[in-house]
Amino acid sequence: MAVLVTMLAAALGACGDAGVLDGVGNRTREVVQGETTTTSLVVAVAAGVDEALVTSTDVLWFNDDIVPQFTGSSPDVIAAVWSRQRSSRFVQAARAEIAAALPSLGFPETVPAQVRWITSQLVYDDLSGDLSADTSAAFGLWTDEPYQTDTSRLGVLRVGRAPSEAPAVRSVMASIEVPDGVSLSWTESGHRYELFCQSRVSEALCVEVALSTVPLLDLRP
């Protein structure tokens, strides 16, 4: 467990400065899923009186000034965003592009009130140029302008492909304590979700955020 804590802490600390979220949640997923699909129930309870939520549409989306360059179909969107790739498989993408590339993908309708910015990326397989099955999209929740300081990142949401046997409906949510916070995981509509919340956010509030997920298509500007 000590090795797990050290490695995950390094991954979380490294993902802010470079503008990517690569590696965040991998070790968490290994602990939660292991070699089985067993999960543990998280019961949502009332958040602390000093905590609050705001709607994610009222937060500044870092990449919404990107003008989408696609005709509308998912393959076109995926190819167009990949064409902007320079040095990382995590490619900055507008939420409209992500919603078009992954129409069934969900995103929390509410986020912690401290959040001021949301970053959004499509994540690729370097060899194929197609979306990565492990992580297809990644989002960062920031209290200040993104990528300036790592401490301003309050949370990370990674979305990948769910196992073929996963039910279409939302699965039971699993929770695990990780360095500096908590990580929640669940599957729904063919996607696997992993939400990491910094320790500044209570587990109860993090669960409320996870439970508020709605289609990203409904949250487009």
Give an overview in words.
There is one protein chain. With 221 residues, this protein is an alpha+beta fold. It has one domain. Helices cover 21% and strands 27% of the residues. The chain has helices at residues 2-14, 26-33, 74-82, 95-101, 203-211; strands spanning 53-55, 60-61, 90-92, 106-108, 110-112, 117-123, 137-142, 153-161, 174-178, 181-188, 191-198, 213-215. The strands form three sheets. Strands 2, 3, 6, 7, 8, 9, 10 and 11 form an eight-stranded mixed sheet that branches. Strands 1-5 form a two-stranded antiparallel sheet. It has a two-stranded antiparallel sheet with strand order 4-12. Strand 10 (181-188) and strand 11 (191-198) form a beta hairpin. Helix 3 (74-82) packs across helix 4. Mean pLDDT is 81; it is low at 1-49.
Summary, kept brief:
The protein is of the alpha+beta class. It has 5 helices and 12 strands. Strands 2, 3, 6, 7, 8, 9, 10 and 11 form an 8-stranded mixed β-sheet that branches.
Number of helices: 5
Number of domains: 1
Regions with pLDDT < 50 over 5+ consecutive residues? 1-49
Derived from helix and strand composition plus strand pairing, the structural class reads: alpha+beta
Rg, nearest Å: 16 Å
User: Cα distance, first to last residue?
Assistant: 43 Å
Query: Sheet bearing the most strands, described?
Result: 8 strands, mixed
Query: Which sequence of SSEs, written as H and E, runs from N to C?
Result: HHEEHEHEEEEEEEEHE
Strand runs, count: 12
Mean pLDDT: 81
Strand content: 25-35%
Helix content: 10-25%
General form: globular
